Amino acid sequence: MDQERKDISRRQFLAGAAALSSAPIIASCSGDGKMPLSSNVQGQNQGAPSAKPQAGCMAKRAYGNTGLMVSILGFGGGTKFAALSDPAGRYASLDAALAGGVNYFDTCVEYGTAATLGNYFSAATCPVTRDQVIIVDKLNARDYTGAKTSFLSELAKLKTSYVDVLLMHNIASGDDITTFAAATGAWTFLKEAKAAGTARFIGFSSMDNTAGGGNLVTWINSTMAPDVCTLAMNITGYGNMKNTAAPAARVKGMGVACIKTLLGVVGAAHPIAACFGGLLSLKDAAGGNLVSTLIVGHDGVGFASGAAEVTANCATMNQLYPCTGVLASNNNPYNYDELERSAKSLAGPHALPWARPDFKDNGKPYIWS
């Protein structure tokens, strides 16, 4: 009987999410503005944002001890976003993200999308001020000079004097994390950027739980004291970040963002809502949320456009955690442990393409956002 009730609840949830994703975007529940939706959100194809889309409402969570409140869906600025070669398509996706309540926007040196974000958020037509969005940038360089040079270039492209979060990108096995804190290491530059206010918070991203010849917990517990981390986590349990790096980070008060939520996992047996809901249901040792936000890329494959995909995912999040102004209620019917048992067979390079060292995306080495 209990299982029958769960199945009915999930069917009702999916029906509601489908209805929301096909509905027009409605007025903001944040009360921050009265502007109409931009023509990009309404479907016209313009080369630049020309009218102010209305900022929407989405559930937000504390991002560790940073004081930031981040939307539970983060906007991935990686290769999927870059695949939208038409500037109008990129702007439309950003319009849709803001209209859906997203405030967390992720990019990286190697993505090549910083200029798009900079042009969008600095435009007079942008519906939000700089302090209303959280911009996250990531650096590939492991040395001080390379990190500094890359970051200054990124700031110019982003057209901002600071980023909210600056990460060392894709820490992996083979990286010697003990050298990053040396005077010539990239972490030394990240600390200087934080002290100067050009990066409010610093940390790392990783898909590899064995990074640094040990594991990420070593770095998390070190004197380097990162503020946040971005980890590859999904309902397959691959990499075991859920039981290692993520809880260790939360004990230290770090904010945890997730990547690789969908790729190689989502399908008929595990719909997007389940992939989202399972991770967002996780709790830390103190009973708080283990995960703050799920960073997702949108290329529009299977949808009318990238913007349509963003809108659908925002609708799914709003079904899981309905947003009513400042507060959000919990309507999430998914249990992570149940989902992991059903998805465990996918936990490995045989099913997760991003886990393969030779995986290519659009002819290029795969970029994980």
How would you characterize the overall build of this protein?
- This protein is of the alpha/beta class.
- The protein has one domain (61-365): NADP-dependent oxidoreductase domain (TIM Barrel).
- It is 31% helix and 15% strand.
- It has an eight-stranded parallel β-barrel with strand order 3-4-5-6-7-8-9-10, surrounded by five helices.
- Helix 3 (87-99) packs parallel to helix 10 (306-320) and helix 4 (114-122) runs parallel beside helix 5.
Short description:
The protein is an alpha/beta fold and 369 residues long. It has a single domain (61-365), classed as NADP-dependent oxidoreductase domain (TIM Barrel).
Secondary-structure element order, as H and E?
HEEEHHEHEHEHEHEHEHEHEEHEE
CATH class type: Alpha Beta
Count of the domains = 1
What is the CATH architecture assignment? Alpha-Beta Barrel
Helix content, binned percent: 25-40%
**Strand-residue proportion:** 5-15%
CATH superfamily: NADP-dependent oxidoreductase domain
Q: Secondary structure elements and their pairing?
A:
Layout: H1 2-21, E1 60-62, E2 69-71, E3 73-76, H2 79-82, H3 87-99, E4 104-106, H4 114-122, E5 134-139, H5 144-158, E6 163-168, H6 186-196, E7 199-206, H7 216-220, E8 228-232, H8 245-251, E9 255-259, H9 272-280, E10 293-296, H10 306-320, E11 323-324, E12 327-328, H11 336-343, E13 360-361, E14 364-365
Parallel strand pairs: 3-4, 3-10, 4-5, 5-6, 6-7, 7-8, 8-9, 9-10
Antiparallel strand pairs: 1-2, 11-12, 13-14
Helix pairs in contact: 1-10, 3-10, 4-5, 5-6, 9-10, 9-11
